[in-house]
Amino acid sequence: MNSLEHTLQQAFQLAVPEVALVGVACVLFLLGTARGVNRHLAGFIALGGLAIAAISHFTALPRVPGIETVTPLLGDKFAMFVRMAAFATGAALVLFAWNECDDRRSSDYMACLLIATAGSSLVGTANDLIFLFLALELVSIPTYVMLYLPGLQSKKGQEAVVKYFMLSVMSSAMLLFGFSYIYGLTGTTNLAAIQEILPRLVAGSESTTAIIAIVFVTAGLGFRITAFPFHFYAPDVYEGGPTGTVAFLAFVPKVSGFAALLKLFAFLGSAHAVANEFVKQAMMLFWILSAITMTAGNVMGLLQNNLKRMLAYSGVANAGYMLIGLAVMPTQAYRGIDEAVVATGPEAIMFYLLAYGAMTIGTLTVISHLHSPNRPVETVDDVAGLRETHPYSAALLGIFLLSMIGLPLTAGFAGKFLLFMSALAAPAAAPMRDLFVALAVIGAVNAAIGAYYYLRVINAMFLRTSLSAPTPRRTAGPLWVTAIICAVFTVAFGVYPLPMINLSRAAVGGL
Amino acid sequence: MTDFNIVYTLALIVVAFGAVMTTVGYLTLAERKISAYVQDRIGPDRAGPFGLLQPLADGIKMFFKEDSTPKHVDKIFFFLAPGIGVATALLAFSIVPFGPSSPPPGPVSVDAGRPLELAITTHEAEMKAYQEHTTFAIAPGLDIGILFSFAIGSLVVYGIILGGWSANNKYALLGSLRSSAQIISYEIPLGMSILGLILFTGSLNLEVILDYQIKHGWFILYQPLAFLLFLVSVYAECNRLPFDLPEAEQELVGGFHTEFGSMKLGLLLMVDYIHMITTSFFMAILFFGGWHLPFGLTNFDGITGLVIKVAVLGFKTFIFLMLYMLVRWTIPRFKFDQLMGLAWQVMIPLAIINLVTVMVIREFKLTPWILTATSLVTFFAAATISTRDNPAANKKRVVVRKPEPVTT
Amino acid sequence: MILADAVLTTAGVESAFSLADYYPVFIFLGVVTGFALSSLIGSQLFYRLGLKPFKPTAVKAMAYESGMDPVGTARMQFDVKFYLIAILFLVFDVELLFLYPWSVVAYSDGSSPEWKQLFGRLVFWEIVVFMISLGIGYIYAWRKGVFKWK
């Protein structure tokens, strides 16, 4: 039964949830051209689509695993983790963006959101370079439309769209260039096969070419995760873009970017025996990237007065923390089999991704709720005295910001703890062990720097008085649902993180 | 086919090139004569008997007129555009078999009854036979066949766009814009109408397509709708009336070639005629069986067969060329919105319907005669829909009031 | 006479790709380029030989606008519709690019019977889905008014 043909036919089964999502998106697109469709109908259809996708995920899962080195799609635990994360995020963002667009454009927006969700879910499933690239593009391309659709009155909004479009296209080109090198080296586009072949090649004379490939792939994906030299678009796009799309941009590209990085570079974890020199170089690359990214993000974040710009730099800093997990990944190979650790790098990344998603989307939800054209909520001063005027919003925003700082009992703390521990727990035999301890220290220092600007906002909310109270929109039901879900996640992961850690461990176990 | 005879190829190129150029010359004469008869004039009759030397005179005139280059033009592209146009149009002709042909051999299957060695021998024998027959295409046996011709033929649009843009003239710019929009729009039904044939023949090679028709009957019988789509699309691709908006004389002077003169204009005018010849060959070969006539009328061998087959194909092509001329004086020019509407709202849906029908018939192994019926039904249904009284349009109709009588 | 290399594919023995098939195209390309360039250059050369007149005037050097002095420049903005048509063309042309290889292989004897048996019907339905998704895009564009030139 485990034949070539069987495997290929099974690949269709694996994509059923995503196909369902895209199908519902098509319905939404067509519906958008009909008269009398309002945003509530579009929103409910989008939620229905996500529900169908989630249900079909459980019903259409193939029973027999296919041949890994043949199938273009792989239904392992990692894929399922990413898929569930994507669907949950999709649902949260549908609620977030419920009132983002007017009735005429809402169904187009929701359709784009569904397609992007399908794309980010496919990133986890992809087992082929081409498929991976298509999935990443499926996330990017609807984003351009989503940045544009909610109405482009301002110059800043237009700047955001154009900037994001241009840089995103360039990053895709770099990614493809890197992929072409990988394909040239290994002669296959199948990821499982690449994981087998590449470690053997990099031991020999192909090491330089492989480094070029890795640098370009990291550059292309670095744009999506807003790693340091590729983060320049983030502040402007966050500031000018519609808040619902910004929440999407803050989280979904990071998930797909890190999922792709983990999938592509999983071989680093087991390659030391044959490719010591190469693995060291790759480790160094991620080490530098991580250290610079978090430092740059936090230092720039200090200078910001605009809340969304601040969140953009906070996103950069958080990408830096998560890169720690990637940098320490190669040290796994030096660890004994039964040697227990708090968390390995990839596990910590998966956990922190979810924690970061909950707190960022939550923060943006509250800002979006408070914002109105007459009384904009854009700078730190705009939220002054929020405790008195909007105590519930202030409490929610407080929870999210405390989690961003990384205070105990929040998801942010648990995630940062796992990441730093993964660096500290690098086995003694691993090369550059001292450097990883240094990386953990840099991370801790950065967390302290970051605390300052988050605390500024909390200070403004709770200790200052307001000159004029924000005038939130009346129709904010869906936003509140999103915010409360995010808050529950943030607190629950912080208080009792064990189930989530186990899930992350199971997810990356197969890589 | 590693066998490549340079002398034969060169001879063929000379013959084909000469024939095409002569035909282009006499097409201009035919065009003028037919226009004259339609308009109850005599037409050119001074140069030679019945004006037969007129093309020659035109050519000499083109060469010896002043070649005025306006000051504002983009010199390089202004100079190159006519060359690009004519070179690509001619190059598209290189795969057309303008005489009898035989298909290149297909794969020889290897099975229990035929071991590998035997299959190789058979294949070699077939190849040998194929290479020894007299070919009439400049480049025979190209796998991509008609796709090559479409690809190269649509490069002509670069000549037009560059010409119109580099002339730095509003008429020229508008003409080239219209032309590019028109050519790319009609490219799609053109390509789609052919897909139905390819599904039957399994090859893009014109010789194979022709051979299939000899064995199974002409495609016009099975796919009249595809033929109609192809016909209309190539008229648009050639910028011929009723689709000659790019050079609509009454509104755009000369369209994209307003600023060109002398030989540059001559080359640009040649492009359309070369295209007409190529596409007429295509229509004859793709849908009307090329050199083949039913009831064994072309079953001759040797030199007699050769002459008869060339004559039959030539005659079919001639008919299509004359059709081009007659349509010019029968159907008035479209408006631009009608032109785009025809391509996008009529021809593309029809092409898709046609393709889906062919697909279903091939998949479920039905008789191709069903296609004839569905083609006709689809066509008449589309015609009924498009010609019925449109209530929405009536509602918007402007009521013209009579002017108030002027009282003094 | 050199015979072509033969290759064994899933369908049987057939001739391998050979660039020699394209030599005539290259030669013809040379001939037509030569023809185009020589007529253009020859037309220019005739000045030097004094065979044709060359009398540029200020009026001849102007852009022709039916006898009026030209107004403004011809490098102007034009309707966004042209861009929309270009984008739609890209969509449909890429779709054609996908359909051409399929249409050649689908029902020809150029593919092996075993694969046809296993995947033939599957590919058929895939193409149906492809056409449906194309149709959805087409209807969307129609409803959004891309084809209206008013």
Structural classification of chain A = mainly alpha
Task: Summarize the largest interface: chains and residue counts.
Answer: B-C, 99 and 89 residues
> How are the strands ordered across the major sheet of chain C?
1-2
Assembly type of the shown chains? heterotrimer
Poorly predicted runs of chain C: none
Beta content of chain C: 5-15%
Uncertain segments of chain A: none
Cα shape of chain C? flat
How much helicity do the residues of chain C have? Answer: 55-70%
Query: How does the overall form of chain A come out from the CA principal axes?
Result: globular
Termini separation of chain C (Å)? Answer: 63 Å
Q: Strand-residue fraction of chain A?
A: under 5%
N-to-C CA distance of chain A: 24 Å
Number of strands of chain C: 2
Q: How many discrete domains of chain C?
A: 2
Overall mean pLDDT score of chain C?
81
Average per-residue pLDDT of chain A, rounded, comes to 87
Q: H/E series of chain A, N to C?
A: HHHHHHHHHHHHHHHHHHHH
- H/E element order of chain C: EEHHH
What secondary-structure arrangement, pairings included, does this model have?
The complex is a heterotrimer of chains A (511), B (408) and C (150).
Chain A: H1 4-14, H2 16-32, H3 39-59, H4 77-96, H5 103-125, H6 129-148, H7 155-186, H8 191-202, H9 207-224, H10 233-240, H11 243-264, H12 276-302, H13 307-328, H14 345-370, H15 386-389, H16 391-405, H17 411-424, H18 433-463, H19 477-495, H20 498-509
Helix pairs in contact in A: 2-3, 2-5, 3-4, 3-5, 4-5, 4-11, 4-14, 4-19, 4-20, 5-6, 5-11, 6-7, 6-11, 7-8, 7-9, 7-10, 9-11, 9-12, 10-13, 11-13, 11-14, 12-13, 12-18, 13-14, 13-17, 13-18, 14-16, 14-17, 14-19, 14-20, 16-18, 16-19, 17-18, 17-19
Chain B: H1 6-38, H2 54-64, H3 75-91, H4 116-132, H5 145-153, H6 156-166, H7 170-201, H8 206-216, H9 219-222, H10 224-237, H11 249-252, H12 262-287, H13 302-328, H14 336-363, H15 369-387, H16 391-395
Chain C: E1 6-9, E2 12-15, H1 23-48, H2 81-106, H3 113-143
Antiparallel strand pairs in C: 1-2
Helix pairs in contact in C: 2-3
